[in-house]
Amino acid sequence: MSYYDPARMPSGAPERPGSPTVASPVSPGVGVAAAPGPSHPSRAASADPARDLVARDLVMTYGRSGASAGPPALGGVDLTIRAGESLAVMGPSGSGKTTLLHVLAGILRPTGGQVLWRGRDIARMSDRERTVLRREDFGFVFQQGMLLPELPAIENVALPLMLGGVRRSEAAARAATLFPPLGLSGLERRRPGELSGGQAQRVAIARALVGRPGVVFADEPTGALDQTTSAEVMHHLTQLAAHTGASLVVVTHDENVARWCNGVVRVRDGRIAPDADDAHADADAHAHADAHADSHVGTGRVEAAPTAAR
Question: Residue 267: inside a domain, yes or no?
Fold first, then answer.
């Protein structure tokens, strides 16, 4: 048994994948059969508001404050990432999209504003508290994987658990359950240098999800991959995140990657782009039309991207 069937791999990004089904928490060692297409619940209200990640009036300025400070990297961003949904953050280089991810993830402390997670403001946490948060409640997938070259794949995946105090044998056992559903069976003892780019990114996905985080942050996770491998990696990332109930935030410049997420926001000059609401409304209309046309085969209703307050 596996979380899902990794062989169900489409040739490219889907036209418009829907909002993921938030699964009830299960042990990482327990799999499910290959799932049908995801359901598409309404975004009128969050299924679990306590697990929403909420940014309020985020401001981030680098360098010294005062008149000598340059333009803000973030200029007052409001955004809600609902529990269990996937969101692509797009924008040109220098737009602030990566800064936004780093602030949401507690890597950077904002100059102003709030990032609320489970009733707490991440921006007010101590450095130690944010370190624990990133290790235990957030998962990360980076462009280059950032795997430790001297460790075999199984230990790279188990590392976050061991850093959190889980015994080595238990951590390795839990890590091993993620290799079959990611198509990595037999590669547990290989080091990163012995893996292909796509395999290494799937190991990074396993590492991000082994601790069952509430949110997974992926910064250009396919930037170093070809289109075919990119589609494969996004398939695994979105499917496994959806099954475990993790929210997913993907920073990307690639429209094909963004289409794997059920929501898109665009960042421009440190703000959510002012035309985002119109784009989301258009996407919602098209999604409803597609869902209606496909209703005879049981396709659910596809929701538009999250609307960010401006």
Answer: yes
Interatomic CA distance for residues 240 and 136, integer angstroms: 18
Query: What pLDDT score was predicted for residue 223?
Result: 87
How far is it, in rounded angstroms, from Cα 49 to Cα 43? 12
Is 145 contained in some domain? Answer: yes
Find the radius of gyration of the CA atoms of the chain.
19
Which pLDDT belongs to residue 45?
Answer: 53
Q: How many domains does the chain have?
A: 1
pTM, full prediction: 0.75
Among 103, 175, 105, which Cα is nearest to 134's? 105
Residue 309 has what pLDDT? 34
> What are the per-10-residue average pLDDT scores of the chain (310 residues)?
41 45 34 35 54 93 67 91 93 91 94 93 94 92 89 96 94 96 94 94 95 94 90 93 93 93 92 62 42 37 34
Residue 11 lies inside a defined structural domain of this protein: no
Instruction: Residue 163: give the domain boundaries.
Output: 49-297
Is residue 49 within 8 Å of residue 273, measured between CB atoms? no
Q: What is the CATH number of the domain that holds 167?
A: 3.40.50.300
Distance CA 76, CA 110 (A): 11
Which helix (H) or strand (E) segment is 98 a member of?
helix 97-104
Query: Is 177 inside any structural domain?
Result: yes
pLDDT at res. 14 = 52
Q: Using CA atoms of 41, 277, 223, 183 in order, give the dihedral in degrees to the nearest 10.
A: 10
Helices (H), 108-222: 127-136, 153-163, 168-176, 197-209
